[in-house]
Predict the 3D structure of the following.
Amino acid sequence: MGLFSNKKRYIALLLATTLAVASSQQVVFAAKSVSELEEEKENLQEEIDSLDSELVSLLTEIDSLEAEISDCEAEIAELQVELEAAQAAEEKQYQQMKLRMKYMYEQGEQSILTMFLESGSLSDFLNRVEYANAVYEYDRTLLESYEATQVEIGEMQSSLETEKASLQSQKSTLSAKQSSLNSMIAAKQSQMEDFDEQLEAAREAARKAAEEEAARRAAEEAAANAAAVTPSGGSSSSDSSDSGSSSNTPSTPDSNPSPATNIGGSSVVSYAMQFVGNPYVWGGNSLTNGCDCSGFVVQVYAHFGINLSGSRNSAALRSVGQAVSYNNIQPGDIVCYAGHVGIYAGGGVIVEAQSSRAGITANRSVTCKPIVAIRRVV
């Protein structure tokens, strides 16, 4: 009967350990997913920023073209006014010249005779004839000048119309590119919204995994406690001693202090897991924008009204709360190393502000380095 009971305890312990390991792997997977999504989101934001910059340059170029087109239209309008004025002057000069030519034609020889008779001398007569010829030449020269001016204005107007058409063509090309960029930016922003949803889902999964892990850890410890009880007549055993056999675990007297608050360690772990994937910043105190290892621990417990700010370094945190032996470690306990500190998350792993390269993680073993102290403050 005693042997059968021992087997049942061993199976229960094995099942609890397996569940805890699976939960730990789920926590690590969720944390990795958050980290990957954060990186992809950052890359996507860089793409959007680059497209925005390109769009601003494009809009500036379009504005410049619109200004050139406006100037071109103004010049065309001015030239049109000048052309109309030249045409009117040419028409007026032409009509006046026709009248003079008609007069001279109708008068014919009589006009010449009249000028001769009215002249006081031959010199006066020649002057009058010369004047009449000069008037004719003047009319002709002025008429030709007006016609040349019209041709010149027409050519300038035609050139400006061609330039305007070219500018409008360039504007159409840039407007099409602007439309394409707007579509690309809209698509990228839609992807960004998807990333936000995925990140929220990944963080929620991490929180749930932490809660499940805490529950499984409780089952594991219950099974371990059951396995530690030897039935009467049975042999004394220290089968569970391997939990503290690692050279990285401290050799301290068996201590398992009672809770000092009504705050559950699993609640502390669940809250801490929300920030997995956020950055590590030396000397930082922000769980979202960045913190270091001791800042992470201090800020997590500050959320529950536990003030550890007077112990704002890993060495000082070795003396907070009450000492806990490694074989009695529970989720929410503070694990102190030489120059580092983290929070035990259960399942053999810690949640910590690991390094500037890794950020806040929950994937390292609690025995990743020699443990100096374990402290309980809840």
Summary: Residues 1-237 form a domain with the Helix Hairpins fold (CATH 1.10.287.2610). DSSP finds four helices and eight strands in the chain. The chain has two domains: 1-237, 246-378.
